Amino acid sequence: MKKLSAEGLAPGLSLAIIAIILLALAFGCSTTPAATPTATAIPSPIPTATPTPPSSPSIKPENASRVKESGRINVSGPLKLVWSLKGDSLAILGQTTVSLFDPNTLQRQVTFEGSARVLDFSSDGHTVAIQSGADQVELDNVTSGKAVTNIKLGVPSVQGLFSPDGAMLALTMQDEIAVTLWDVATGQQLRKLSGFRTAAPVYGIFFAPNGRSLIWRARATVQLMDIATGQLGPIFSHEDFVTALALSPDGKTLATVVPTMVNNQFVGSIKLWDAASGSGTATLTQDDRPAMSITFSNDGRLLAADSGTFIELWDMASHQRLQTLNALSSATDNIDWLAFSPDGAILASTATDGTVRLWRVSP
Length: 363
Description:
mainly beta, globular
């Protein structure tokens, strides 16, 4: 197989992949001081399909063939999705906005708007982290629009990420490869993690689903770190840029995506790894462009991955593709984010065409 690199990729594909990775890592790099945000709790119905009652079964290999689009929300510039811990609210993050929707009625619950860059939204359903200054991060309540906590870093931050339970906020530094962890309730720094080595100027972090590990990514390198001890695990090396990654809920399987050439066409190659040993266990070949977002179902039995205009559902036991969902009408658009609801009954997807689609098992 041909080794791929930034130079080896087709120019258009290389630039597109790099651009999307940079956007996903940092949601932009604006450090403009924040204006006072506003929050509105006036319901605004915008469903385009009849919502399915909240009694849908969890999406599993046994019913994956019956997964259909059950609803659609139209928003401006959706970048990321965050489910509340109870699954009763879906947050859609934009560059400077957060909109909360009821996933069953598709009614808008709250809209939070400001001029500062949104870093992340908490699964507690009401706390947003925004970059209020070059070296400051502000935690706001999206319903009231009021600041809850201010974090003074002293150096510019690049990426902010809430832990899965919403208790911690991880912030990366612009001047070093390090992560500081902050207590959301008190605004106090808990610890600083470092030791990940990379020559790449851009890197990103991700929390493991159980919140006990941190995942580092830089270009073609991925590595896990135990948060409590700061100990690094094995290095996962790839032939080219890693465009997406996910860790299974039990922490045993790491999935990564890289571009590969098949029949003179660049497609996605999903690599499955033993997270503890660093050994590769399987490779799944996608039908179209490499995924920019992948996610495991809540029981870890399914892996959802975008590929071109489609969403693929893979069985983790057989490594077979069970379903391909048509999620876009235009080949020029991209699917940016995939997220299963906490109960596994809904798969939500965002796309550059301004749509957020909800997928459920049909009767």
